[in-house]
Specification:
alpha+beta; 4-stranded antiparallel sheet; 10 strands; elongated; 359 residues; 9 helices
Length: 359
């Protein structure tokens, strides 16, 4: 079941990505030779107008083949003969559609919740006496936080949504002081030496000593909550890529298709009910499609970002790089990407055999 769901998710993500290229190419007047879902042997193919539409056997990708992508020819409607700004829009369109899909999936996720969580403090651990006075057990209140503060960052780590609290507070221990930035009464202020701890809980390492505000669902709160969660996911992905490039990430943290399938299977298996399963799959779909969008925009040869980089070079030089030279660079980039994919797949299989995955 995990494999089937993964195929459906990957198929949707790839189709949406290539559809972005396809629509913008058509609108730009660029000749599209073939729009394919999947790779490998053709299962179904139909030609409509000048474009072939194909469904292929291997659900591991897809493509939008345009006239003159890597070669120069005399066709005025070829990709390389199109105006530079049109080519740049076509290249960015795929990742843009991935972001749109990710936002839609996040919005459906938020709509399925009972209320929309925020990053605004709604209360602190404490006890109200009969006379109305409150004794606070929350050290964060004692050290400067207040009701209705909107948390912006803790120790430099940005708080985009309520889901960022899990990551931040996993690293916090009691009695440590922290630099917290909040938005209070419309102004951004920095509070030094904030301590998080609920003193009413004896012998507890629990540090979260405040509650957050949950808003009723309406169009505005859903859009706000969706935007915040989208930013959380995007930030998590870019941070992971930075760790990977800098060498801070361990090789065990790198996963390929096998790892993704195993994660999807685990999420489906551990779901308590159908609603929980849908929420988990929406979360994973959002993460994967945003990841694909960001990764495709990296200036790596063979990716959309690599081709976009050559467009910027052309913009600066005021003349394009020779197609054959650009083609060699993209070929080397594709070889590197295939090498990374093979390594990630090998890594996934090792973790699967040794019990690194569950489900």
């Amino acid at each position: 079941m995990g494999i089937i769901i993964a195929i459906l998710i990957f198929g949707l993500i790839v189709t949406v990505h290539e559809f972005g290229h396809f629509v913008c190419a058509k609108l730009s007047g660029i000749r599209v030779l073939e729009f394919s879902i999947g790779m490998g042997p053709k299962l179904i193919q139909k030609k409509k107008g000048e474009t072939k539409y194909s469904l292929r056997a291997l659900p591991i990708g897809g493509y939008c083949a345009m006239e003159g992508e890597d070669t120069t020819n005399n066709d005025p409607r070829s990709f390389r003969n199109a105006k530079l700004w049109k080519r740049m829009i076509v290249l960015v369109a795929g990742a843009t559609m991935n972001f749109v899909l990710g936002f839609v999936a996040v919005m459906i996720f938020i709509c399925m919740l009972n209320k929309v969580p925020s990053t605004v403090i709604n209360g602190f651990s404490g006890e109200r006496a009969d006379d109305g006075s409150v004794t606070y057990y929350a050290r964060s209140y004692e050290t400067g936080l207040r009701h209705n503060d909107k948390l912006i960052s803790i120790d430099g780590e940005r708080i985009y949504s309520a889901w960022d609290f899990n990551n931040v507070f996993d690293k916090i221990t009691i009695n440590d002081s922290h630099k917290v930035v909040v938005k209070r009464d419309g102004k951004r202020i920095t509070i030094e030496n904030v301590v998080f701890h609920d003193t009413s809980v004896v012998d507890s390492e629990e540090v979260v000593d405040f509650g957050i505000r949950y808003d009723k669902k309406n169009p505005l709160t859903v859009i706000r909550g969706s935007g915040e969660l989208f930013m959380t996911m995007s930030h998590a992905i870019t941070s992971s890529l930075k760790q990977l490039v800098s060498g801070k990430a361990k090789k065990e943290d790198v996963s390929g298709p096998v790892g993704v399938v195993s994660t999807i299977n685990e999420a489906a298996a551990e779901s308590k009910n159908l609603e929980d399963a849908i929420l988990n799959l929406l979360w994973l779909t959002s993460l994967i499609t945003i990841n694909v969008g960001i990764f495709n925009l990296l200036p790596i040869p063979g990716l959309d970002g690599g081709r976009l980089l050559f467009c910027f070079v052309e913009l600066i030089r005021r003349k394009p790089v020779k197609p054959e030279h650009e083609g060699y660079v993209h070929l080397a980039g594709m070889a590197l990407l295939f090498g990374i994919m093979i390594f990630a797949t090998y890594n996934d299989i090792v973790k699967l055999v040794t019990g690194g995955f569950h489900g």
